[in-house]
What we know:
homotetramer, 150 residues, alpha+beta, 5-stranded antiparallel beta sheet, 5 strands
Amino acid sequence: LIEDVKTxxxxxxxxxxxxxxxxxxxxxxxxxxxxxxxxxxxxAKDILHEHSPQGxxxxxxxxxxxxxxxxxxxxxxxxxxLQAHSEGVRVRFRYALxxxxxxxxxxxxATGDTELAALGPNGKVARLPQSMTEIFTxxxxxxxxxxxxx
Amino acid sequence: LIEDVKTxxxxxxxxxxxxxxxxxxxxxxxxxxxxxxxxxxxxAKDILHEHSPQGxxxxxxxxxxxxxxxxxxxxxxxxxxLQAHSEGVRVRFRYALxxxxxxxxxxxxATGDTELAALGPNGKVARLPQSMTEIFTxxxxxxxxxxxxx
Amino acid sequence: LIEDVKTxxxxxxxxxxxxxxxxxxxxxxxxxxxxxxxxxxxxAKDILHEHSPQGxxxxxxxxxxxxxxxxxxxxxxxxxxLQAHSEGVRVRFRYALxxxxxxxxxxxxATGDTELAALGPNGKVARLPQSMTEIFTxxxxxxxxxxxxx
Amino acid sequence: LIEDVKTxxxxxxxxxxxxxxxxxxxxxxxxxxxxxxxxxxxxAKDILHEHSPQGxxxxxxxxxxxxxxxxxxxxxxxxxxLQAHSEGVRVRFRYALxxxxxxxxxxxxATGDTELAALGPNGKVARLPQSMTEIFTxxxxxxxxxxxxx
Lengths: 150, 150, 150, 150
């Protein structure tokens, strides 16, 4: 469905321990899903070894925004679609969280946007190595988000 | 320090299980702190019995924004300052998270803003009873956030 | 390595949000890993549709035991090996948590044991349908745990 | 109700984000409640400053056992009763989790038992300073657990 090759796709199921008494995924877990998608992206691009504790770099989230459209439920199959964008010592990620079903395809549940500061081995803000910023730039950043579904 | 009587104050410590490998509170926990402050506010205003499962109403978070300025650490003493504002079937809350120390008073760590939809017993969007909306209105909403510290 | 066909194997990575300030996976997360392995087992055996909210049954943990041998760390690749055993209205599960690496194969990190009570649609203890108990019996239960590695 | 002066009591409410789709507190949170009670005990005994990151010592959980008798629910008022016992480089803690209500007093929900290894500044197993072991010994260890209620 999603044509944009610059979008990274991370798949995972909803775990029972992520639900709350309303029978839906607690809204704090979407923040964890987004982080998992970021890490999966670094892994897919083969730059996770630059990240702490294997490498010297880590990322501190400095701004976060989420819009919740529909609840996720146990045991939904989820997809997080992600785009990255390097801006100096900061990296921005955008996310679209979908429920994936055989009958209805992808159903948009939430969108997110985070801004992260790159930290060096001393915990201070650091400029990232070219191997990382290149990846973030290649991933691109398109005009509208979430990407339109065809 | 904070003069505004319309601001609700919720105090709690950082728990060890909320830290991450950077030695700081993981950014998803701020979302939980804000929720705890909301519930504490309902309790303080004596309207928690209207909330599920004791009462018929619950709240679904539909938008969330957080800015992280400084990390919280174990075992910091925290304060969440909160303001509420009723807008039809939606309620907005603003938060300011502080570290409280004897030497430095309150130190601003993060701010947050959430918009919630009130849900009735059937899980559908509902108009809240006057007992609740009155409380939200009384709490007020001031021009700047976080409140200036004197 | 593990020859026993009766053992279910669930794989997942350590997420960053599961680490704590000691730089290791917080010990409460092992409990979540075990639950995820149980659900993955039900899915693999095609009986997850009997589980709430899709089906009428759910499980309440009534006893839990864990031994922690070595810490798990971000971004370890993990395997949970699981055995199930039906005992009337109770189901017992045993778990062995391993780190999986190319160089060292499987390294035992922790073991666990849980006893669960089957609950029916009304939340009361219930006898499970034969489709479920048969699966639990087939999975078997061997003498020693964790299984010896060859 | 509880006469034993050697038992430390930690109070806290159930948070909404700790519930699951069964409408009860997810069983992994009891592990967090026990940890919070341990930290509260160290704070009450004025030895938390010996604990990382303020001091050189930390504790790794090496064994954990929990029995779940009745579910905790939002927004229950809870009490964790705790006893500590120093055994060389290991410390054992026992817990009893109660719901506290005006009408029914204390209602036992769960019991727990953990064994922890004391770690020094280098992350290696360490002998604790006398200031800590004395406290653990003073807390005592009585024959039956949970303590009988009068």
